[in-house]
Records
---
Amino acid sequence: MKKSTSKKTVSPAPAKKPAPAPAPVVVKPAKPMLKKTSVKAVAASAVATTITAQIDIGFGNALYIRGQGPGLSWDRGALMNCVADDRWQITLPESARPVLFKFLVNDLSWSAGEDYTAAPGAKVTLTPTF
């Protein structure tokens, strides 16, 4: 058997465009199934409480609140927001229980009298004395 000495030339294959990428698949998350009555029941039982103090404590001073309730402690005061020259306000997180509290000037001087109480979800305005 003889070997052929001629070389066969092979032409390269024609270049092909790559196939377009498939479109991404968008998966929508399932909506949670909640009963409307359960949402209303939770909203009705736990609501935010807003406490406002009507008092001018002087320039450079700050009003604090201490007590028992969401975000409050008897050991360390929570700074209230000065919303006017003679008005201080704080909104406490949602709670289903009443809030028991007292005001302090510069977190040092306690307001006179008994402790104040605010119902959950109440918006109270008080005039403390020192």
Note: The longest strand covers residues 87-95.
---
Amino acid sequence: MIPNKKQILSWCFFDFAVSSYSANVLSIIFPVYYVTYIVGNSGIGDLWWGRAISVSMLAVAILSPYLGGVADYAGIRKRMLLCFVLLGAFFVASLSGLKKGDVVEGFLLIVMANISIESAIVFYNSFLPLIASREYFGRVSSWGFAIGYIGSILSLLVGLYFIERNQYELIWLYVSISLILFSLPTFLTMPSDEKKSSFFNAAYKGMKFIIKTFLHLWREKTLRKFFIAYFLYMDGVNTVIVFSGIYASVTIGFKPAELVLLFIVVQFTAFAGASVFAKASDSLGPRTIILISLILWITVCIAAFFISSKIMFFTLASVAGVGLGTIQASSRAYFSRFIPKGNESEYFGVYSMIGKTSAIIGPILFGEISGVTGSQRVAILMITIFFLLGFFIIEGLKKERSVSKSS
């Protein structure tokens, strides 16, 4: 019997809300729109887009552990979640004002939007240990991603509607409204804040504590190895996510409408993967599921180097979708098993710091290689290295155990 069903469903709906941003702005429609229309040059556009993602992720990597410490010390994680969702919605809506040639303006807006949404996800993740018992971490985490993929499909259908009418600016407005609307169940049902101290006092203690927390976690051999592996393979995943639409458009030749249909199918396979592996994450262990996912990602990147046909790429992308939800959900579930009660935001702040730092090197590397060689194929092949290194480190990890609470 699963307790807190209402809270768990509401928590999952936040994934549904964020999915409209991930699908339309971060991964598929806006990257291609920015590179081909706002910038107008695929080589230079790759550089600008890679830099925008890397800069925003660097900022999140620096801010997330600090914000997590503040949220736990001040007891205001729910309010901070709301604050960053509203900020993200504002910056996404502002994308509607972009015109051809507004390269810097687009760069700045996507940086601010990404910082806001990714920061909100830190607080969202930190609620998982509060609403689900340890034996259900894997399933609940996977359910969140599965519901998120349903949201991606629906939001992409709306995006396709506006693309066919050449009304791109309405897509960004729709995403902004979706972020707020579908976050409401989460805000209404998550555990209430219990204010512990002033924001400024918490800010001081939070910074001091998060350094101590990071050092404490780093001393744990298993966690240290996991962090290194997570850094590497999520660098690969994040790079594929933010460049997949551009790659399909520029290298394979997908038109905007074809691109949206492609990624709708990918969301279906991602939903299927997250759903099928949900229980397996608890029965087999999230470490095993991570390894299976990494084998799939390695295969996908190597195959992408050789594929030229739209039909073959369509098939490959569908396979990649299966590994997308599983590696994210299983990683979150694996890490959740190490968290002592009362340290959720701080620990997930460190987790986010590692994950977002990993989104700095890959996009820059992809953009630079693509710009220098003039080939996105060489760039995608290089990303395989991140998955290979991550696989060998995870494969060497022993069965996970809880980490003692830092003092």
Note: The chain has 17 helices and no strands.
